[in-house]
Design goal:
With 311 residues, the chain is an alpha/beta fold. It folds into two domains: 115 residues, NAD(P)-binding Rossmann-like Domain (Rossmann fold, 3-Layer(aba) Sandwich); 179 residues, Rossmann fold (3-Layer(aba) Sandwich). Strands 8-7-6-9-10-11-12 form a seven-stranded parallel beta sheet. A six-stranded mixed beta sheet has the order 2-1-3-4-5-13, covered by helices on one side. Strand 9, helix 7 and strand 10 form a beta-alpha-beta unit.
Length: 311
Amino acid sequence: MSTVACWLGDSAEDADWVRLLTPLLPGMTVRPLTDPGDPAAVRYAVAWAPPPGALAAFPNLRAVVSVGAGIDHLLRDPAFPRHLPILRTTGAQMVQRLQEYVALHVLAHHRRLADTDAQQARGEWRQFVTPPAWDRAVGVMGLGRIGAACAGALAGLGFAVRGWARSPRELPGVAVHAGAAGLASFLEGCEILVCLLPLTPATEGILNAGLFARLPRGAALVNAGRGRHLVDDDLLAALAAGQIGAATLDVFREEPLPPGHPFWRHPRIRVTPHLASYIDPATGAATVAANIRAFEETGTAPDLADAARGY
């Protein structure tokens, strides 16, 4: 009997996934990666940031399922079997969660909630005017399935939305800029920048001092892509200089974010604990099981990643 091995990094969460996946995958045995049974029987691994070398121990793996849209957490393992297909876990609920998160924090920056929170703390009554959404330029970096949906949601709120992608495409209500040649025009005048890029060698560290300098003074940043997109010290310097006015960060180079990290207590940074599209086990198990069943039957799945490309 084929085995599906699960690793989410927490024994209780692993147990939840095993319990939920078992009835959805009849004919397969679902076990935690820490106790997989016969390594030769493991055909699928369902994982988020598994220990280095763990997946290489299964000689008959057919595919690896990433519990999330990204695959960088798998590829950073030098022993990862890169010939294997990688099935990403996306779906309507994940897209909806990201849309909600992005809309919430873009609106928070647009309507200057950090300023009104500070005024409330001081007991200060001071009114100010914010422009209507159509006078606010919002840029979305990364226009895959999730990024395109978020850009569309912002356009639906009335914002002047622009997007930046690796290659040209058309999105209703979104002015698309493409490739390295289109980055400067994308950034020019962009008052709120949303990063939803995949993490690749080309995008690591892209949120840096040079990029911040191309934005209008006082621009806001929302990073819900990957922590390694951001150069932490460059953001702190840009905030100190007023080049960046505020930031919302959901992803970090080290997670959990260390207790002494300056982001925690910075008055112009809002920290959220990587929950923009955090998938609950019940929803995730249904999506994962459907992808595994499809792969078993056809040798493919709705959302295959490209390990060579990095997403």
